[in-house]
Amino acid sequence: MTVNTAALATRVQGAQAPVPTKVTVASILRDDKIKARFEQLLGSKAPGFMSSIINITNSNTALQKCEPMSVVSAAAIAATLDLPIDPNLGFAYVVPYGNKAQFQLGTRGYIQLAMRTGAYKTINVTEVCEGEIVRVDKFKGEYEFGERTSDKVVGYIAYFSLINGFEKFLYMSVDEVRAHAKRYSKTYSNPRGTWQTNFDAMAQKTALKRLLSKYGILSIEMQLSLTADQATVRMDEQTDEFGFDYADNDGDAVDAEFRQIDDEIDLGMTPEDKALFAGAS
Questions:
Q1: What is the chain's mean pLDDT, rounded?
Q2: Which of 20, 123, 129, 145 is the most buried (most CB within 10 A)?
């Protein structure tokens, strides 16, 4: 019997070739440099935070289909802000958008970052029902409040007061919120999107975000949160700087200004750290 030794050798070589290791969120987080970076950001809280990244990925089928590094990068923004990403807590989220993960800040996250500045005495956002706003002075930005006449929600109002006495309201009617969402959110019409499944929460977040971005005292953390909200994190290979891609951002012109100023926020990372988070495998 004649044996084709060349063909046999090729088959043997192919059989013995190592199978490429699949890159997963868990495998990225096992990297010593990645672990060291999270430890630098969070100290003793780093192991728990990294476990939460794996937990949210394992519990979300759509997130498992995203590029693993985009999940870790989105979580790294939350780590930089020292906010938990457990979706049940409402501070920050890592959510799937196509094949990449986005960082999203929750209403409680905005309030937490604002209170950390030490400048805010009170901050709140709530729905407004018929009868609760009697008159609006658009020149002074002042509101006269009344008693509720029905349970129909007609709008949303955000408010803050500062330690120095300055205070500000921002009101958006339901129609204004819907118009804003239709203009800036590509997923507004998606029946499974958050705007359709939890309109009230998204409306409150929108009102609060607009109030803070227009009139609030913004720490570096708050500027970063406004820039990164609903963005995927990227890195410019030429400059080693972080930037953000906005596939679906509910920001307005004010937020566009933040993106111009802070599109290349350093996040306190060295060039080695930036390369690590942008290209680790």
A1: 80
A2: 123
pLDDT tens per residue, range 136-158: 898 888 899 999 999 999 999 99
- State pLDDT tens for residues 190-201: 787 788 888 999
Which one, of 245, 248, 226, 225, lies nearest residue 235 by Cα?
245
CB 42 within 8 Å of CB 75? no
* pTM given for the model: 0.72
Residues paired with 128 in a beta bridge:
155
- 209 in Cβ contact with 125 (< 8 Å): no
**CA 106 and chain centroid, separation:** 8
Strands 153-162 and 120-129: antiparallel
Query: By C-alpha distance, which of 211, 209, 217, 218 is closest to 141?
Result: 211
Going by C-beta distance under 8 Å and a sequence separation of 6 or more, which residues neighbour residue 179?
A: none
Q: Which amino acid belongs to residue 32?
A: D
88 CB-contact burial (10 Å; exposed 0-12 / middle 13-18 / buried 19+): exposed
CB 119 within 8 A of CB 167: no
Tokens found for residue 144: 């006269």
| Torsional sign, CA 31, 32, 38, 41 | negative
The rounded distance, in Å, linking the Cα atoms of 103 and 76 is 9
Q: Which amino acid is at 228?
A: A
- Residue 161 contacts residue 122 (beta carbons within 8 Å): yes
- Containing 121, the helix (H) or strand (E) segment is strand 120-129
